[in-house]
Amino acid sequence: MPQLPASSILGFPFVELQSIDSTNKYAMNLVHTGMASHGMAIFAHAQTAGRGQRNKTWSSESGKNIALSLIVNPFPLKTFENFKIICCVSVAIANFLKKYAGDEIKIKWPNDIYWRDRKAGGVLIENIIKTGKVSSGNWQWAVIGIGININQTNFPVELPNPVSLKQITGKEFNTIELAKELCAELTTFFNDLISKNNNFLYEQYCNLLYKKDEKVKFKKGNRIFEAKILGVSETGQLITQHAIEERFDFGEIEWLLEKV
């Protein structure tokens, strides 16, 4: 019978690396070689091949930002409850950033972090599912990759509307200290999720939803359409309304936001 992790602290041990291709890739290698433990954090001052959603790269200037991956044991959650992890992590990051950037921090579905109409951070969660006759389908590990713009002020022109904490506040920050503070915030929210497993985090996610009750342009394949965002279902589908109500899964549609 699987047991709850012995340690409920996220961010311990805290592994600090000067340069790596991808913190998520490094963390996944630890999982596959049996060297992972619940709560382990991988922080890199520089990433040469950072990854984001939809197979996009995450561009980050060396030494300026948070590039962090956490390894967690999601038990007793089941694989079909993966949106609960997304809610937990997104809400924790939003609450963490609101301490510095104020109440204009929002969550852009499914798990980007926005300040006003500009992207401050993003999340990439990769799951490891047990296989075999006895344990097939059991959720063994989740690797939570987090990228947050902290001190960077110059971004590649192709990036859509990036923003950093320094640009928002005018202040310089210690990225290691902020990353450890973020781990403490994530610990609180993750432990609440595992111990209570209620709808509180989902409700907070919905309250922080970017562009809720507003019309947004989307692209699905060759189809471009405008729809009002009504909310997000408890399983993570984006609920929209135009001529009819439509629901979309992760990766099914692309936001078409204007450059600011």
Question: What report would you give on this structure?
Answer:
The chain is α+β, with helices and mostly antiparallel strands. It folds into two domains: about 15-205, 2-Layer Sandwich (BirA Bifunctional Protein, domain 2), CATH 3.30.930; about 215-255. It is about 25% helix and about 30% strand. It has five helices and twelve strands. It has helices at about 25-30, 80-100, 165-170, 175-195, 200-205, and strands at about 15-20, 40-45, 65-70, 105-110, 110-115, 120-130, 140-150, 215-220, 225-230, 240, 245-250, 255. Strands 1-2-3-7-6-5-4 form a seven-stranded mixed beta sheet, sandwiched between helices. Strands 11-10-9-8-12 form a five-stranded antiparallel beta sheet, with no helix packed on it. A hairpin with a 2-residue loop joins β8 and β9. α2 crosses α5. The longest helix has 22 residues, at about 175-195. Residues about 1-5 have low confidence and may be disordered.
Q: How would you describe this structure in keywords?
A:
260 residues; alpha+beta; BirA Bifunctional Protein, domain 2; 2 domains; 7-stranded mixed sheet; 5-stranded antiparallel sheet; 25% helix; globular; disordered N terminus
Summary of the model, kept short:
This protein is α+β, with helices and mostly antiparallel strands and 260 residues long.
Say what the CATH topology of the largest domain is. BirA Bifunctional Protein, domain 2
Distance between the termini: 52 Å
Class from helix and strand fractions: alpha+beta
Proportion of beta-strand residues: 25-35%
